[in-house]
Amino acid sequence: MNPQSELTRNLPRRYYTEPEILVREREGALSTTWQYAGHESQIPERGDYFTFEIAGQGLFCVRDSERKIHAFFNVCQHRAHELVTGVGNKRVIVCPYHAWTYNLDGQLRYGRNLSSVPGLDISKICLTSAKLENFHGFLFVNLDSEARSMEEWYPNVHEEIREFVPQIDRLKLFRVEKLVENCNWKLSVENYSECYHCPINHKAFSNGIIKPETYDIQPQGYCLRHTTECQNLDKMSYPIYLEANATAGKYSSWYLWPMFSFQVYPGNILNTYCWRDIDVDHVEVQRGWFSVDGEDSEVIDALAEQDLQTTVAEDIRLVESVQRGMRNRGYRPGPLVVDPKGGVHSEHSIEVLQEWMRAGIQTQ
Q: What does the pLDDT look like over 267-317, one tens digit per residue?
C-alpha cells in the first residue's frame, strides 16, 4: 500500500469553487445548525426588531408586548411579501403589500375584507416561527424545527463561557465591524480554526497577546475549543489585571459549527465572529466587541483597533490568496499536518472541521 494514500488530505478544490456545493450546504448543514441572529440588547424595548439571513432565508427577531423574543421568517402568509427591513420598532407587523396585520407574537390580527371569505379562521394564520435559543443574551436560530438543543450540540460551552466572562449577563454590543472577504466561507472558518499559521503571520497576536507554544484546539461536540495562556505581562500589548479572577490570564475561543465563535481575550474581554455566506467566492464576517452595560472602554477599543489593523488584515490577505489558489489548476490537495499530540503546529482541528464540512453537503 502506498503510505501517501493514508494521509489526511485537504478538501478537493470543488468544495470552495462550485456554486452547487453552496446550494447543497444551504439545503443541508446551514439549514439544520444553530446560527447567530444577534444580541438581545439590540431589541431592548417592546416592538423592537432586527432582520438577518440564514442560508439565504430572510428572518427577523422581535420583542413582543410581554417582552418575549421571537424569531420569524420574514414573509407574509398571504402573498409572500417581505414584512420588515433593517431594524426598527413596530406596534404591530403590517405587510406593505396588502396591509395584512400581525401581532408581535406572530398571530394574524387583521386583513381587509377577510370576514367575507367563507370558512376562513384568521386565528389559524400565524407567521412561521424559527427555533430560537437565548444563550447568555446571544440569540441563536435553527431553521430545523426538530433540532437538538445547543447544549447537546456544544456541551459545557454555556458554563465555560460564564467562567471566562463572569459579567456576561450585563454585556451589550460595544463595537461591530463588518467586512467582506473574497473567499468561500469555509476557507475563512478554516483559517480561524487553526493557529499553525499564527507565529508566521500574526506577530502582534503571537508576541503581544498569547504564548503560541501553549496553544491548542480540541473538539467538544460540534465546538472547537481554543485554549492558551496570555503572553508575559511585560510583553502584553494592552493592560490586564491577573488577580481579577481565575481566567483573567487566559485566552479561550469556542468555535460553534458552522458560522460563529465566542472569543475571550486575556482580561475577560469578549468578542464574537459571525460568518454570513454571500456566494461561493464571498463571505461577510461580522466581529462584535462587548462591554459591561455597553459602556465605552479605551482598552477594548484599542484592542479592537489593533486586531483590525493586524490579525484581521493579515487573515484577509491569507484567505483571499487561498481562494485564488483554489481556482489554480496546478493545485493538488496537500496532506494536513495532523500531530497526535495536538498543539499549535498541528492541523488536527482542520481534520475534524472538514469531516463536518463533508457531512454538511450530504444532509438533506
A: 999 999 999 999 999 999 999 999 999 999 999 999 999 999 999 999 999
pLDDT tens-digit map of 239-252 = 998 998 999 999 99
Beta strands 108-110 and 101-102 are antiparallel
Q: Which residues contact 210 (CB under 8 A, 6 or more apart)?
A: 228, 229, 230, 231, 251, 266
Q: Does domain 165-360 have CATH number 3.40.50.2300?
A: no
- One DSSP character per residue, 103-171 reads -TTSBEEE-TTGGGSTT--GGG-BPPB-EEEEETTEEEEES-TTPPPHHHHSTTHHHHHHHH-TTGGGE
What angle do the packed helices 313-326 and 185-192 form, to 10 degrees? 130
Cell of 321: 490568496
What is the side-by-side order of every strand in the sheet holding 260-265? 171-181, 282-292, 269-279, 260-265, 250-256, 223-229, 216-219
Counting every residue written for the chain, the total comes to: 364
Please tell me the class of the 35-142 domain: mainly beta
Residues of the chain with pLDDT under 50: 1-5, 363-364
Q: How far is Cα 278 from Cα 26, in angstroms, rounded to an integer?
A: 11
Joined grid coordinates for residue 41:
440588547
Per domain, the residue ranges of the chain are 35-142, 165-360
